[in-house]
# Entry
Amino acid sequence: MGKITGFMEFERLEQAHEPVKQRKTHFREFITPLNPQQAKKQAARCMDCGTPFCTFSCPLNNVAPEFNDLIYNEKWEEAYRVLAATNNFPEFTSRVCPALCENGCVMNYTNVAMGVKSIERAIITNAWNQGWVKPEPAAGSREKSVAVIGSGPAGLACAQQLARKGYAVTVFEKNKRPGGLLRYGIPDFKLDKSLIDRRIAQMEAEGVRFNCGTSIGIKEHPDGVWSDAERVIDPQELLRDFSAVVLAIGSETPRDLKVAGRELKGVHFAMEYLPSQNKINADEAAHKEISAQDKKVLIIGGGDTGSDCLGTAIRQGASKVLQIDLGPKPPETYDKSSVWPNWPNVYRVSTSQEEGGERAYAISTTEFISNKKGSVKGVKAVRLEWTSDPITGRRMKKEIPGSEFEIEADLVLLAMGFVQPSEPVLKAFGVQTDIRGNAKAAYEGVDAFKTNVPKVFAAGDCRRGQSLVVRALAEGRRCAEAVDKYLKEEDNL
# Structure
């Protein structure tokens, strides 16, 4: 449990950040992991509270008290083994996860939570530096093959788990390089892509094959979905050639804003904008080079994707950036006794929001305004009043009369989330969908992750809807268990 009185003796220690003025000038990562002594001091704060709400709050069920204790006792390799037992890619989650575990930390109830995320990053950084992260090929082959469609977090986790069980795994990815959302949707300053490359190399050494530039069922993808596909494979071919197929295609269909002027030049989905810059950083050809340099940028959407757009626009040299949200501004504080250990609705400031730009709330966009050349020059908007239904508690909004106004903008980025996976891909397989358009498959039970199509499984955002990287990893791991169970049962028939 670390040091018995550590939580009373030591304050939470945050990872060092490069100063805003410097980091705005480049796209490199700017957060420095804790060194071994700092990590030991942080780990000393863990109470080992008996009921590990941190573990229960984590979709991967990482056993933070155990690896915290090992770090406090300077048993770094053992700590890495404990972490790697539940998390295939701690270097990803320790960078982009919102740390649900920390909100569940018992200390968060009355004080400040353990820095679980920072310790996780210190562990995996040290493990790579020491050479402890090595390929783990299966001892033998089960002579069955699995096709995994999509190489985002769910697909990668599922593929690695199945390969380590002895299956011949082929991952199909529509873009030139594997990684999905991790590579093309998350800015480099949050996740350096060399981290993905070394994991791909590890997985290839474990027997995983990657077939990139390959779309399944469809050639042309809708706007807002990035694709480098040069060839198309018929789903029936996969069903014929593989023992099982896992759909891990994400939830890529972006929520659109269908108001007058939507067709104007300069209005883009976030997932047209962010991959463009990531590809430029990687010296890859981008379908559209979208730059915010010297432009007034309006970001519609107050979530993480919008924040990523903000940080990217600032680095590109935008003259002004405004991020607006349909919802009301969250409260600055909250009553922990009524929320803990669940995730609270509270005002947060991301590292990108620290760097500049403005934020505004309770605003609805009603029209895009055109200049004489058919490009956007701003939007018409109206302010909203939010109330709660006295019976159901459900939030309701209404426009405030006379509150109409205009916002100047010559680049508008739509970052309003995603509504469903690629519908044509699901239709190509004949997979049934739920009321939200996601692949219909249970999370638990005998039919966990199974779709209505024999030997076709679904995992990650394409099954549960838009969510977190950490949840996608958890789904990928659990889907691998379901596929393994299914193939073993086939052997026994």
Summary: Residues 6-130 form a domain with the Fumarate Reductase Iron-sulfur Protein; Chain B, domain 2 fold (CATH 1.10.1060.10). The chain has 21 helices and 20 strands. The chain has a mean pLDDT of 95.
